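Morning, I've got a small favour to ask if you have a moment. I owe you a coffee for this, so here goes:

…
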Amino acid sequence: MSSFIILIIILGSVFGILTVFIVKSFIAPRKISSLYELLKKGRASQVIRATKQMVSKDPYNIDAHYLLGLAYLADGKEELALMELQRVNKLGEFTEFCREVPFRKEIARLYAKFGQLEEALKEYLLLIKAEPSNPEHYFHAGELFEQRGKGSKAVTFYMKAVELDRRFADAHYRLGVLLYRGKKPLEARAELEAAVKLQPENYSAYYYLGRLLKEEHDYAGALRMLEKAQRDQELKVKVLIERGTCYMSMNNFRRAIPEFERALKLIDDDGGNEVLYARYFLAYCYEKERELDKAIGQWEKIYSKKPTFKDVADKLTQYQDLRADDSMKDYLTAPKERFFEICTASIKALRLKVREISEIPNGCQIVAVEDQEKWRNARKMPRLIRFYRVPEILDESTVRSLHEEMKKSNISRGMIITSSSFSRNAYNYAETRPIDLYNKNQLQELLKRAKI
């Protein structure tokens, strides 16, 4: 009899446990569902309170942890949301409510946001296994590989994304940028053009297309692309600098100058690389346009921030005479007509008389003869003289060019006068030929004699 009673008690206990389990299995999902409906109505705080109670009673309740994570997200508490989703991950199971793909998308996004790139990448690789035909997963995996400095792997994933969806504009753009950086201009251009065709407001794609075209020496095309790119205020400074360098490459320094000036007005960091390059390019344009005071001003500003930047120190040394020597400043900065007057006066100081004068790149060319009035009937031997106002050292090719012109014009003597100096090869070439070379110091003496 006692055994029978014990059996009854055991069966009752089992039945009770089963009943509780069945009730919980029926009630818990309904409760999660009703709480989810509350969350959709914007009552996140209420859901947080309820789900906190649920997980405190049952720490292994996957649905409650997941819903608590969603509620934290809705309440703007993303760090707490990530903690809850990590708990779900540790439990390692999915339910009808907590489905794998939506869960992994959310946790991957949060990992990426909080800089846990390795964990985010693992989630996207798992998503690719779960949904191998979804291009979004390949794209996000590509982004993470790119952020970790693995460009070649990123390219592979971006390529798969555009293979699955030819209209995936962002994937075309990211792929184009990486191909551009990888020195594959043709492939890069195709991807970037696809990106702007699909997404005309992608101004960053226009920016890279502009750079590509500039490197291909299609400056007109580059300027068109960069014109569109500058609608993006964040790209404005970079675009202006690129446009300026396009005009520089076209030797249109007058058009380049305003681009660099506008860029400098927009830059706050006076010692950053962008401002240093903008000033350097602007100084170069000023120098080419003979606005040397302005060029020196830019070099001085660069020097004050970074004395070792490019050849700025050499430039300041080279033009230090301008402050102390007005005649040299006049020679270097004068417009064409005034420059011709200075060169003519210098010829007279050499006891020569100008017969012809013409403009050449960075200077002028003069055919002169000896100015000796008392020997009117004597044959006057012409000389071919070239004045240069350039910062660069003149090499042998410059002297050789003069010598060839002398032979063509049947002139027996020649002279080169420059505001810089000559290379050793230039001096060696001139030593065995009837050509005199005047460097900067000799030019300064000549200008004094000419009373410029």
Q: What stands out?
A: The radius of gyration is 39 Å. Strands lie at 352-360, 363-370, 383-388, 413-418, 435-438. Residues 14-28 have pLDDT under 50 and may be disordered. The domain at 31-98 is CATH 1.25.40.10 (Serine Threonine Protein Phosphatase 5, Tetratricopeptide repeat).
